[in-house]
Amino acid sequence: MSGRGIKSAVAALALQRVLRFGPIGWAAAGGYALWRLHRDRKKSREETAQG
């Protein structure tokens, strides 16, 4: 199975989950995505400061 196939399968699963949970699912997914983004930015900023 190619990487694209895996990604589309994950996206389809996520979409089903979001549709099932509705607005709560959207809020949770959005909050998690923002947290991940913020954490990764913070980590990279610390690495550049050390480097």
Short key terms for the protein model shown above:
51 residues; 92% helix; 0% strand; 2 helices; mainly alpha
Descriptive account of the structure:
The chain is mainly alpha-helical. The chain is 92% helix and 0% strand. It contains 2 helices and no strands. Helix 1 packs across helix 2 (23-50). The termini are far apart. The model has no long low-confidence stretch (mean pLDDT 85).
Write the SSE topology.
Blueprint: H1 3-21, H2 23-50
Compute the CA-based radius of gyration.
15 Å
* Number of discrete helical segments: 2
How many extended strands? 0
The N- and C-terminal alpha carbons lie at a distance of: 39 Å
Average pLDDT metric: 85
Please tell me what the overall shape is: flat
Report a brief summary of the structure.
By secondary structure, this protein is mainly α. It is built from 2 helices and no strands.
